[in-house]
Specification:
Shape: extended
Strand order of the largest sheet: 2-3-4-5
Strand content: 35-45%
Low-confidence stretches: none
Mean pLDDT: 84
Radius of gyration: 22 Å
Number of helices: 1
Length: 132
């Protein structure tokens, strides 16, 4: 036996809390799926008939929920896909500060002050006009 101690550093993340397995045949329009490691909202699903190798295929078209890019994937309907855990939270806008941050009211009645205004001029003007 060796007297050396072995130290292993784990830099991998299983990502188990970010997604859950879901059968491809059960995912419907307006659901969520992970396509090319990006969380997407499904905007179109089409299912082909069983082919000569015995699997029906599902063709998914999804919109990335962060970048709004369109992504596509084809998966056998009996196989499992990753589906992201998606939580949507609505806040009420209280104030827009001079330094580019907004004050938001949470559902519990607390304020959230660490959110910066977007840099897109069109979206920025919509927010400011809606607040005024």
């Amino acid at each position: 036996m060796s007297d050396e101690e072995h130290h292993f550093e784990s830099k991998a993340d299983a990502g188990a809390s970010k997604t859950y397995p879901q059968q491809a045949g059960t995912i419907r329009k307006n659901g969520y799926i992970v396509i090319k490691n990006r969380p997407c909202k499904v905007v179109e699903v089409s299912t082909s008939k069983t082919g000569k190798h015995g699997h029906a295929k599902c063709h998914f078209v999804g919109i990335d929920i962060f970048t709004a890019k369109k992504l596509e994937d084809i998966v056998p309907s009996s196989h499992n896909c990753d589906a992201p855990h998606v939580n949507r939270t609505d806040y009420q806008l209280i104030d827009i500060s001079e330094d580019g941050f907004v004050s938001l009211l949470t559902e519990s009645g607390n304020t959230k002050d660490n959110l910066r205004l977007p840099t897109d001029e069109n979206l920025l003007s919509q927010i400011k006009d809606g607040f005024a």
